Each structure stands twice: as structure tokens, then as C-alpha cells.
């Protein structure tokens, strides 16, 4: 029988979650814990919060691009899978500071993937984005659609996808790249949510307005070629997205092949429909003003979901807009009380 204290022979079952103190990563840590998995987090706390990492989960404060730190963490915790959320995520900021984005999203991912290969990590799950598609020609978007990102953020993520594809071909690593559409909502049990005050996402802005932290909500453009003129997005509840990561882990552990998968529900809501639902849930109107278009917004982004449906054992449980809005508002109310 293997000596359980030997790192050479101990089963490598722990999941290393980079960016586990952030919005999506913290929900995935909860889902992994709920599934009885051992987890270790590496996060530099640049936008994440220590409090988002549950008690009992080790937090290593440092960069996911610090190959020595990552290798030491892999060895110390018996890591067999890396889930990589750490990164910079604000699209307009990526236009102003492209090199910061290539450094944090691409260069640091290169160092991380290199550390994984050197340490014999066999499974890698990557947070990619619908932004890799740019302005798609057809809707819904399937994974074979051309990848033509229109900003440095999308390009920095696409380069990491390419790196993973080539690394998988050359080394023993298998990966799942998950292309998230619009992630929203919060843990239904109230354990985590979107905590960054600087978030630019529509529902976060609406939740801030609903709790009196923001004077108004601007609708960026109502002259798009969509049914009501406002942009359409495929909003996915963060806890369903977290469950997709656990399903991707199970897929790879069962010997499944490398995959690139959209994460969405395959149906879109307009900005107006989202704000209408917020007002319905609140039972009162919000100060909403129509403003000009925001640069770089595609009119519509809706995920093709056929591939994820047939590849992963994943059943969405929170796939209605009302649940997404209710959980986002509940979290924001909690946040305002905790950090007034
Ligand atoms: N939020 C969305 O709608 C969305 C959509 C598509 C893709 N994504 C991707 O999902 C991932 C997570 O996004 P999020 O919304 O949770 O953002 P977030 O800012 O809440 O989380 C990112 C986390 O990574 C940490 N971090 C950043 N750079 C780091 C580094 N070099 N080393 C270690 N830790 C670092 C931050 O402190 C934070 O805890 C990102 O990679 C993002 O590109 C998000
Ligand atoms: O105050 C606001 C904020 C947003 N919007 C609109 O709401 C929609 C959604 O915007 P936002 O929530 O900022 O998300 P996206 O710009 O669609 O981008 C998100 O979704 C992408 C995938 O679809 C990810 O790649 C990005 O990381 C993530 O930020 C867009 O039409 C925006 O113009 C407004 O009208 N007013």
C-alpha cells in the first residue's frame, strides 16, 4: 500500500484554485467543498478578499504567475488539478493598459501552465470568456465560430487558450477551457457574491442603485438591432457556472479529452428586460437613464450550449432571470450592512 505521507506516492487529489478569493473563484471553492473536495487557493488579493475564502481552506497569498510559489504549493498540497481564475477582467481598462492585461492574463498564465507541466499536474480548467468571439456573425454562438476578439482582454484570454491547446498536444496535460458568457447572481445560501465595489457589470450596477449606493443606472444604447433596441446577453447564474467547473473536473478525472465549452443557458435577455426584472423584484422603479452606446459592445451574445450539454454531466439549477436578480440583490443588501 502506498505510504500516505510520501509526496511521490500520495494521491494528488487536491484542487488548486487561482483567484479563489474573487467573485467566481470563491463560488467554485464553495462548490468543490460542497462536493467534498480538498482545495487550496492562490490569490494575490488584488481584487479578491480574504473573507471570501471559507474557513478551513488554505489561502496562499501570492501571484499565480510565481512559478516557484505554485510549484511549492502543488508539492505541499498534493495538487492534481489546477483551476485558473486569477486575472484582470475590466474590458475598457484593458484598452487603456494593454500590457498590464497581457502580463497578468497571458504571461502569468504561461508561468502557471509551465509550473503545472514541470510539477506533473495532469488536469487544468481555465476561465475563458465569450469575449474571444468579438462581434459574432451568427447567434447562438457555437464553439467553432471564428475567434476574433476586439479588445486586449479578449486577446489575452485567447492566447492562453492557444497555449493550453499546444501544451496539451506536447505534454501530458488535459484541459477544459470554459468560455463564460455573462456571469451574475450570488450563492443562494448567501455565502458569497460579487463584492468588488468597482464592478462594471450591469446587474452589479443595478444592485448598487437598488441599495442607494448609486444615483442612477445608465442604459448604454437603445438603438441596437435587437427587439427593444438594448443589448442582449446570456446571463448565467454563478452557482450554475461553479457546478460546471465541478463537472469539468469529473470529466477530466474520468479520462475525458481536452475541451473548449461555452457556459451559458442559450437564451438572452436585453438590458431593459434585466432592469425590468430588478424593478419587479424590488417592487419599485429605479432611476434609469438612456445614455450613448459603450464602445465595443456587441448587440447580442447568446451561447450555443449543445456541446457543454453533451460533454459534461451538468444540469443548471438556477436558470431563470428572477433567481439571478434575487440572489444578486440579497447579496448586495448583505454587503451594504456588513461594509456600509
Ligand atoms: N465576471 C465575468 O462576467 C467573467 C466573464 C468571463 C470570464 N471571466 C473570467 O473569470 C475569472 C474570474 O473573474 P471574476 O469575475 O471572479 O473576477 P475577480 O476580480 O472577482 O476575481 C479575480 C481574482 O483573481 C485574483 N488575481 C488577479 N490577478 C492575480 C494574480 N496574478 N495572481 C493571483 N491572484 C490574482 C484577484 O485578487 C481576484 O481574487 C477571470 O479570469 C475572468 O477573466 C469573468
Ligand atoms: O451600467 C451599465 C452596465 C452595462 N450595461 C450594458 O449591459 C450589457 C452587459 O454589460 P456587462 O455586464 O458590462 O457585461 P459585458 O460587457 O457583456 O461583458 C461581460 O461578459 C463577457 C462575456 O459575455 C465577459 O467576457 C466579460 O468579462 C464580462 O464583463 C451591455 O450591453 C452593456 O452595455 C449598461 O447598459 N449599463
Automatic annotation (TrEMBL):
Any single biological process term in GO: galactose catabolic process via UDP-galactose, Leloir pathway
Pathway the protein contributes to: Carbohydrate metabolism; galactose metabolism
Enzyme Commission number(s) of this protein: 5.1.3.2
Record's catalysed reaction(s): UDP-alpha-D-glucose = UDP-alpha-D-galactose
Keywords: Carbohydrate metabolism, Isomerase, NAD
Record has NAD as a keyword: yes
Residue span(s) of domain NAD-dependent epimerase/dehydratase: 15-264
Record GO terms (molecular function): UDP-glucose 4-epimerase activity
Cofactor: NAD(+)
Superkingdom as given in the UniProt entry: Bacteria
Keyword Isomerase part of the UniProt annotation: yes
Gene3D superfamilies the record matches: NAD(P)-binding Rossmann-like Domain, UDP-galactose 4-epimerase, domain 1
Assembly and binders: Homodimer.
NCBIfam families (alphabetical): galE
Family classification: Belongs to the NAD(P)-dependent epimerase/dehydratase family.
PANTHER family in the record: UDP-ARABINOSE 4-EPIMERASE 1, UDP-GLUCOSE 4-EPIMERASE
Protein name: UDP-glucose 4-epimerase
Gene name of the record: galE
